[in-house]
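Workshop exercise sheet. Pairs work together: one partner reads the sequence aloud, the other fills in the structure field after running the prediction. Swap roles for the next sheet.
Pair: D.N. / O.F.
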Amino acid sequence: TLIQELLPLCFILTPNVPEAEYILTKATALSSSGSIPLTAEGKVKIQSLDQMKAAAKDLARLGPSIVLLKGGHLPFIKRTGEALDSALFGSVDDLEVEMEELELVDLIYDSRYDSFTELRQSFLRTSSTHGTGCTLSAAIAAMLSKNRDAIEAIVLATDYVQSAIRDGLTVGKGKGCLNHFHHVVRRSIEKPTKFNPHPLTNYLLKTCADDWKKYTCHAFVQGIADGTLPQESFIHYLKQDYLFLQTYARAHGLGAFKARTMEESKAFADIVVHIADESKLHVNFCAKWGVSLEDMLAAPESMANVAYTRYVLDIGKYHDSTKSMTGDLLDLGLAIAPCLIGYGDIGRRLYNDPNTVRGDANPYWDWIKNYHDSDYQSAVERGIANLERQCNTQQPSEHRLKQMEEIFRTATRLEISFWDMALLRL
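Structure field:
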């Protein structure tokens, strides 16, 4: 009845992987056709993203215009793309892989245009999943009733369910419930939770994704990764970076001055100490390249350096409307965040990338190791935690969030200009 009578009437079908396997096994028995080879037991088994795509197409041939194949039962290892069958580990608590290394893929197939859309989400270690399927279907229907495009309705509904899971309720025993009302108190940005401890940072990196990629994957950075960066460009960068660090330390000192609590003051002061230590390493590192402290101090600031550092200080000093010394502490944190977070991102990515040239074969390997080092990564974590704490305290409006986004985006673009300056020796 389901396959022969109901599915031909269906517009959007939303099975999870086990449900899709069951339907396709039954359908194959009826028609002896299907894209996925059967197991020895005569069953359909989905074990990869390609097989998810094949399964979605097979399901669409049964009648639905659109298939949303939910991937919660088939998490993938981000680094390798390898799928983990939930039947093999029983529950997420039995997994030996760290949760942050896993992601799930909800796959949308639109048979009207023969197109796929992949919705990737971090895999959550939680038991608060009771009612997810019903909630998702209801949310999609609600979005469609608002005249949303079908794909947009699915994306919005999926985001809603993911947030409901992250803010799930632990009630009694067994599977917990989703928090269907997580959005009733309107927040422009989610509060930090165990499953999403950095909602502001994640939001900024998502909304500024294009600029962030240009920054962290700049030609200068790629030249460091493979060792092909002209040494003259790197030496020019070292001189300018030391001058930048001086102002960067002042900016954090300004943050400590403007802080209203001892905890906030200490957070900024700790970063100042780290910058001071980093500057010593910088001097020693530069000496290996024949650049003395005197050389760095004697170098004129480039225009890209001046533009970036003064922008950061101005954001910290002045309020938009009053132009007084009441610049928001959160604004200052946003202006300095791209440097702190970006270098941590670059160091971590290049160090772990198998294509990075390593050791003596790469003259910039020590630079990569410096920003991958646990001391620097810890500084990044503290900086992000301070930024998230400031945002959660303010609970910014949507208008305020747009202002915050623009500060972060501008500072990111100034980082791109800094790389351009270094690469072209401007």
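Discussion prompt: Residues 199-424 form a domain with the Heme Oxygenase; Chain A fold (CATH 1.20.910.10). What would you look at next?
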